[in-house]
Specification:
single chain; 1236 residues; alpha/beta; six-stranded mixed sheet; 11% strand; elongated; CHAT domain-containing protein; CHAT_dom
Length: 1236
């Protein structure tokens, strides 16, 4: 037990060894061996002494009789002690300094194992003795869900100790600086060192305790070969190349073989590998390939303008020797099934794990490059990736695929780095990448120039699952932890990257120089930026072996993301699936190769790109992937963990619940309704982890996607609306969360995808397919047929809703129809997938990205989207020239307040009997008594809307250029939630007569149900269909409703005005105005004017909203079935034609929206009951103004593009007549305009 015993035995062994050199007596060598063995195996001595004894023991082992067993035992002890010694050092920098002295021990041990025909042991030793710092960091970050489940106390303690060790290990050690430290600082350093040692010992003791628990015997133990093989991807090959001074070998691992295939590299030696590295470095230096370079800078330096000298051919010689003496012998040793290649013609996948000098050679580009290659190039045979160790595969694979890459790429461009050449193409590279990602709906943020600071990038790493860096980078040979990418305010160092723990990181594209160049004095520690990104959590890294061409970098990046976004390796993964990143890089680099060729100069430009990291995991490897009950089981498991958390308050239970809900929500089998329930719970729990922005966004992406999917499976519009009643606030909640994370574009996209779902689905089924017809008429015809069949099934009435018991035959028919609907829906989805495979049709009928939504925004005016959620209220302003929405937080508004205002207004209207079109006499009879203070209710509502909603928005609207007509600017309002029931267009302070304090004096307002409608309505489409005529309907005596005598007067005035201007008209009144007659006439006229009663449907049947004709109601459900491509204007002079269902505010289920869906581009509607007395004047003034409108010169007929202005003028005329009292306001502010 004496602490010096190990040193004594070591010194004694040195004496015996020295005597043996003189005497050559075998006894001395045996005694030396015994003493070294005793010292190495000591449990009390200093680990560095034990290690030195173990190394000497290993050197003596070949001279012993039982040399094979002694060799294995000695090297096994060496490997264990290397890890122990590195763990004792208390900073990563100190660990690297120690490991420089031990860098060849693990490769020497592996060579010894292969010399005794033990390839399994060689693999295990390489895994245990290499990348020690990375492995220790990963161990400290090991997820402990299983341990938390059975031993939460031990798990908490272990996490505490690991976090403490990681914190102490990653700090900068002041005692190694050259400055003389003050005594208090020196003492603080010593205290920290003591704390590190104490924590390390306590952690080791705790590990012993944990490993005594059944099932945890191998917890954080070095991996056995069988453990490594479990991480092997299918259909791939891993090649480990070991380089030792005694021999070089390759070990080939394939998933179906229990042992590695050993290939002795007889034509290679450690010395030869070093020479190739020296030759390659010489070629790169002669070409001035140090930082990322522009071709002009390179030419000025005189590097590669000529390749006539022999030195300039060194690259080709290096690649040729790698092919003939390394790669070709390895390929010839592959199992037969891999030599034949993939039956589908895909390239082989090879992961290279090189050691020693091989880590600095471009093995992936090995080949004989001349005029006729004929398969003499590895890139023509296989897709290559690199891994620092085999263990990394298990860690990457064990992480759950979250799909966060669907919407999160951070783009960084730094063209002007102080002291380094300007990079002219980084901005172009990032711009091309951003456009490609935005087009596919991937969320991006760009940091460019002054914004690309170290702090800004570090702060956003957790918010984005992917990062693309286009900048300078450098390798620090003296201190590899100072290797860095260079940003605006300085370097982002490898030491800072190592501190990050990003469990949801996916892809790092490092378009910079030397990002995979390690320290030559530490080849087995793989100390470079690419490995640092893997350690931080990124599963896939694109890096470079030397400087890249600034000119060609944008093309490589653009082609990479194009291929990645179109990748078919994982058909079930939507968005940016990084499992195809190696293939995408291969495709992009080979495209550059075809462009530049295989000349020495060209090789320098395409060879440096390399891929590190993850594999393409086969979906069949997922346990129970096809089981239909798996999502429900995971959902129930999540609910159990959540219940347990509510009792224990343990964070681990909450994490486990979140993980289970995520697994269920992203399942490929089972019920979509279960997926949706799980996604909603996932989103709810994710909001509790504010730092995991990617998790939050991914959860809400899944919710939005599944809402539409689940609604699609319902086989009638009524059933869809019933389903959506319970989901009405999900889209606004998601948008609010996106806004809280400063993602206004994403908020807008989610509002579009998650609102007006039924209208959007109907519009998609009617989408013109002219472009598709032009190139694939067969697919277009098939899509039209399926869409019409689906629309028929969706629009029919479901008799099951009647509550009556149906005959068996009817029930069977309904079940058959439901089955047919599901079959057609699936067939249409498969057809859409085929269409999206066609060039230029990749986004056919997909949810719109912000860029696509902006194409429908009118050139004049602004569109204001008001989002209302219980957590916050905001306005988003978009206009034709904006790059992204302008966010205006509505700090003085809340969801509750908006709902209260809407309820106060509803009660006010109800108390006044404003439920149907009325005559003043009938209204006085109906409204009864009211309180004296009720007269101020409406003005109070309008004043609140002005001061707290509209007035804060107005300063952010774009400035309008006044033309000669001095027209008021246009505003399109797109309200959500309770705001949809408030008269925003009439907001104002009507008690202040001295100044402009009403919105109507600032702008002409219109409403839209969503942004997508603007593109379909088409502002660039000429409004010249007015010559198709106006159909006028008057119904004064609807059965069971009060008579409204002035409808005939209204229609007569309108008819006379139109006939006087030569507009074709037809009038149906009284008994002629039947449902069938009116429905038929809608197809024959581009405009319709309805003067009649109307009503809003009940909560149980929102599609029952209707206008009342002679024989009964013309319901919204019937209007929805219409598809009127030449429709222009619908003037609905009836009550409540723009009042939606309060339980479905974001589905906008009212008559005005129905008219837009049917095809009408402009709709005049009402928010409550209109005055029969004033309706004729409004209509007459409207058409007079519309017919006099000069907004579209040369248009013959009724130009409806001026309908919003015409309604504004007509309503303001009525306002001047009746005033701004409560009575007056009730008569004029109810008129609203929808559409263009």
């Amino acid at each position: 037990g004496h602490a010096d015993l190990s040193s004594c035995h070591h010194n004694l062994a040195n004496s015996f060894s020295a005597r043996f050199k003189i005497t050559q007596r075998p006894t001395d060598i045996l005694l030396a061996h015994f003493s070294y063995h005793t010292s190495a195996m000591s449990i009390t001595g200093h680990p560095s002494v034990c290690l030195e004894s173990a190394r000497q023991w290993a050197l003596l082992a070949p001279d012993l009789e039982n040399w094979q067993s002694e060799t294995l035992a000695a090297h096994d002890r060496v490997i264990n002690l290397i890890s122990l010694i590195a763990g004792i050092e208390n900073t990563s920098k100190r660990q690297y300094e120690v490991l420089k002295e031990l860098s060849y021990d693990c490769t020497r041990a592996a060579a010894a194992a292969m010399s005794v025909n033990q390839p399994l042991k060689a693999i295990e030793w390489l895994e245990s003795g290499r990348c020690l710092v990375w492995n220790q960091i990963n161990q400290l970050r090991t997820p402990m869900h299983e341990l938390y489940t059975c031993q939460p106390d031990l798990a908490d303690r272990f996490a505490f100790l690991s976090n403490g060790l990681e914190h102490l290990g990653s700090r900068v050690e002041q005692s190694h600086s050259r400055m003389e430290l003050p005594m208090h600082v020196w003492m603080s350093v010593e205290v920290e060192a003591y704390s590190h040692l104490r924590l390390a010992k306590e952690r080791e003791q705790l590990l012993v305790t944990i490993r005594e628990i059944p099932g945890f015997e191998s917890f954080l133990q070095p991996k056995k070969f069988t453990d490594v093989m479990r991480s092997m991807p299918e259909d791939c090959i891993i090649v480990v190349i070991n380089a030792d001074k005694s021999r070089c070998d390759a070990l080939i691992l394939t998933p179906d073989h229990d042992e590695p295939t050993h290939v002795a590299l007889e034509n290679f030696s450690h010395e030869k590998a070093l020479k190739l590295v020296t030759d390659l470095r010489k070629d790169l230096r002669s070409s001035q390939l140090l930082p990322r370079y522009s071709d002009s800078v390179q030419r000025k330096a005189g590097p590669v303008t000529s390749f006539k000298r022999k030195d300039n051919l060194l690259m080709m010689q290096v690649l040729q020797e790698l092919w003939t003496d390394l790669v070709e012998p390895i390929l010839n040793s592959f199992p037969v099934e891999f030599q034949k290649g993939n039956k589908k013609g895909k390239l082989m996948r090879i992961w290279w794990c090189p050691t020693g000098p091989f880590a600095f050679l471009p093995i992936h580009a090995a080949g004989v490059y001349n005029q006729s290659r004929h398969g003499k190039c590895l890139a023509d045979i296989a897709i290559s990736s690199y891994i620092p160790t085999l263990s990394i595969l298990e860690r990457l694979r064990s992480r759950k695929k979250t799909g966060f890459s669907n919407g999160s790429v951070l783009l960084v461009s730094q063209a002007n780095t102080p002291g380094l050449p300007k990079l002219h193409f980084t901005n172009e590279e990032v711009q091309k990448t951003s456009l490609e990602l935005d087009r596919r709906g991937i969320r991006t943020e760009t940091l460019r120039g002054e914004k690309a600071t170290v702090t800004a990038v570090l702060d956003r790493l957790k918010a984005f699952s992917c990062i693309h860096l286009a900048c300078h980078a450098s390798q620090d040979t003296k201190d590899p932890l100072n290797s860095a990418v260079h940003l605006y305010d300085g370097p982002l160092k490898l030491s800072e990257i190592m501190k990050k723990n990003l469990p949801h990181a996916e892809l790092a594209f490092m378009s910079a120089c030397q990002t995979s160049v390690g320290d030559e004095s530490l080849p087995e520690e793989v100390v470079h930026l690419a490995a640092g990104m893997l350690t931080a959590g990124y599963r896939s890294v694109v890096a470079t072996m030397w400087s890249i061409s600034d000119e060609h970098a944008p093309d490589v990046a653009e082609n990479f993301y194009k291929c990645l976004l179109k990748d078919k390796i994982a058909d079930d993964v939507v968005g940016l699936d990084v499992t195809g990143s190696a293939q995408a890089l291969h495709v992009a680099v080979q495209a550059l190769r075809r462009k530049l060729g295989d000349s020495p100069e060209a090789l320098l430009k395409w060879v440096p790109y390399v891929h590190f990291g993850m594999a393409v995991w086969k979906r069949t490897q997922r346990p129970c992937i096809g089981h239909s009950n798996l999502p429900a089981m995971q959902h129930n498991l999540g609910s159990s963990f959540l219940t347990q958390f509510n009792s224990t308050r343990r964070p681990a239970d909450l994490l486990l619940a979140q993980s289970s809900y995520r697994t269920s929500a992203t399942s490929l089998t089972g019920s979509p309704s279960v997926w949706l329930q799980s996604a909603r719970k996932w989103a709810q729990l994710s909001s509790g982890f504010g730092e995991l922005e990617g998790e939050i966004l991914a959860a809400h992406v899944q919710v939005i996607k599944l809402i539409s999917l689940v609604a699609c499976f319902e086989d009638t519009s009524k059933r869809r609306h019933e389903l959506l009643t319970g989901l009405s606030q999900d889209s606004t909640k998601a948008a609010a969360k996106a806004l809280s994370l400063n993602q206004p574009s994403k908020a807008l996209e989610w509002l579009e995808a998650g609102r007006c779902i039924v209208w959007n689905q109907i519009s998609q089924l009617r989408t013109p397919v002219d472009e598709l017809h032009a190139c694939r008429p067969d697919l277009a015809d098939q899509l039209i047929l399926l869409s019409r069949q689906l629309e028929y099934f969706g629009g029919r009435t479901d008799p099951r809703q009647s509550g009556m018991e149906l005959p068996m035959q009817v029930q069977m028919t309904l079940e058959a129809e439901a089955h047919t609907h599901l079959k057609l829906a699936k067939e249409r989805e498969e057809l859409l997938a085929s269409i999206r495979d066609l060039p230029d049709f990749e986004s056919f009928l997909l949810p719109k990205t912000f860029a696509e939504l902006m194409r429908g925004i009118p050139n004049d005016g602004a569109t204001v989207i008001i989002n209302s959620d219980k957590s916050r209220c905001d306005a988003l302003i978009v206009f034709a020239t904006c790059a992204e929405p302008t966010l205006v937080p509505l700090e003085r508004f809340s969801y509750k307040r908006a709902k209260n205002l809407a309820e106060v207004l509803r009660l006010h209207l109800t108390s006044r009997g404003l439920q149907s079109r009325y005559s003043d006499e009938a209204r006085r009879e109906a409204r009864g008594m009211r309180g004296a203070d009720e007269t101020d209710v409406l003005q109070a509502v309008l004043r609140d809307l002005w001061t707290d909603l509209v007035e804060p928005i107005l300063p952010f609207l774009p400035a309008e250029d006044k033309d000669e007509k001095d027209d008021l600017p246009r505003i399109w309002w797109c309200p959500t939630g309770p705001f949809a029931f408030l008269p925003i267009h009439a907001a104002g302070d009507y008690n202040n007569h001295g100044s402009r304090k009403t919105l109507a004096e600032f702008a002409i307002s219109s409403y839209i149900p969503n942004l997508s409608i603007l593109k379909r309505l088409g502002f660039d489409r000429q409004g010249n269909n007015g010559d198709r005529g106006v159909f006028l309907v008057s119904q004064a005596d609807a059965p069971g409703l009060r008579r409204i005598p002035l409808t005939d007067t209204e229609v007569e005035k309108t008819f006379n005005e139109l006939r006087r201007r030569g507009i074709r008209t037809a009038v149906h009144g009284s008994k002629a105005a039947t449902v069938a007659a009116v429905s038929d006439k809608l197809d024959s006229f581009s405009c319709v004017h309805l003067a009649c009663h109307a009503s809003q449907g009940t909560k149980d049947d929102p599609l029952g909203s209707a206008v009342y004709l002679h024989e009964g109601p013309l319901k919204l459900s019937e209007i929805m079935k219409k598809n009127l491509p030449h429709a222009e204007l619908a003037f609905m002079s009836a009550c409540q034609t723009s009042v939606g269902d309060e339980s479905l505010p974001d589905e906008v289920v009212h008559l005005a929206a129905g008219m837009l869906t049917a095809g009408y581009r402009s709709v005049v509607a009402t928010m409550w009951s209109i005055s029969d007395e004033h309706a004729p004047d409004i209509a007459e003034d409207f058409y007079k103004c519309l017919l006099n409108d000069e907004t579209a010169d040369g248009v013959v007929g009724l130009d409806i593009t001026g309908s919003a202005q015409a309604l504004h003028i007509a309503v303001q005329a009525l306002r001047r007549k009746v005033g701004d009292t409560t009575e007056g306001l009730l008569k004029w502010i109810l008129y609203v305009h929808f559409g263009i």
